[in-house]
Amino acid sequence: MQTEQLNGVVSKPAYSSVELNPKSRFHLFIAEQNVTAEMQSIYDECSSDKKIAVYNDASDTQLIESLALFPLAGTLYLAGTEPFIWRVASHARQAGMCPEQIRMMTPVSRERHLFCCHCYTVTEGVTYSPYVCDGCGLSLEVTDHFARLHSAYFGYQVNAEDSADMPAKREVS
Amino acid sequence: MSVIDQMSVVVTAVKQVAPMIKEFTLEPLEGQLTPFSPGAHVVVTMAGTESTYRNAYSLMSDPQDNSQYRIAVRLQETSRGGSVYMHQQVEVGTQLKISPPSNLFAPQWMAKKHVLFAGGVGITPFLSYLPALQRQQVPFELHYMYRSQQTGAYRIELTESLADRCHCYDADQGNRCDVSAVMSAQPLGTHFYICGPESLIEAVQTTADEMGIPPSAIHWEAFAGAKPGQPFVVELSGRGVELDVAADSSLLEALEAADIKIPNLCRAGVCGQCVCDVAGGEVEHRDSYLSDTEKQSGRVIMPCVSRAAGERLVLDI
Question: Which residues of A touch B186 (CB under 8 A)?
């Protein structure tokens, strides 16, 4: 996992293609809703001890349970939306996994979770900026500042100085 | 980079804790010492008659105790002077200068379990880990390897206080640690720490690699400082000065002897503070800080441990 500088912010994750970890003794593949073609091909290539799990709306308890018997010499592969893979990764880190044990595939959509710094609500499915906060209704600038612990991007009121000054809508990548 | 002040301490106790190891208790001449983090070390400056020695020693006292520091020094067979000085010249009442503590070997506080491998005098940094790990009530195991005819300090106290969390292996009794058996039985979230000779560090690294244990779960501190080599001449291009570096002196020591201040913390090729630009000559890299690419470029050197590969080196200083 690397980060690259975008809009002057270095915290937006950059994803590269994922490879099988040949040293690993156990491989756990977790996908959100669908096993992607990339994940399927790595899974098929893997000849050692492996397990695959697909979740729809997995609860935190479910995710934590799925990691419970994960061994020290294992590798975790994640596919799905960005908020999902980072949520699983956060549980994995809490369980004691090292960063190189967690391999994330490029998110299947560009939808973001947006954290509102005014009311702390997380708005889901954000694809453009400014975006109206589900909690307080303010128009938020969607930044590229990504919080790994919350799997969400930082948002702040875009027109706080002048309510008439609303920037043009732009897509976020 | 600010210049770090030296602290003056006085030796208040000297104890022979193993055939080749002496323990020194250091107390401040004035004021209090700072608390430190587990795994920290200090650099002790020793004003010998022929040259000044500076060696890094792990602090082995409780990190929360600011009334005194304790260090242990093994007499090295191939000493360049420092350990001999500590063993033969330093006694109760001797005053020494030490650097403030710095730490390149702190525990991973997120770890679910800590497995400590100590070889000989490599037990010292772990002695400052133990009070902290016990306070945190996190699981740990200590695997202590030594030769009782030379080292093996504190093994009786450790066995008594840690009971089955301390495993001792006396090579002089033919007891060996089965590193792979120890490592294979560990749960997710275990971090491994090694302080000891290069061979022990390599054994743990190789085992981890074979077992698929992630590299970032392995932490080590080699206590080998600068080793001697061939004498050479260093030219400082910015100053138009040439210095001789003797066989048993490091490049950093030669620069310091000429009153050229180079920031440094570990004096063992680990911390990266003393990096210097090379303007000419081949380098024999001995550090574990620079990347392979940087080493191949031949444009930087860690003068604390690395030397000229030929008779001459030009530094951009």
Answer: 72
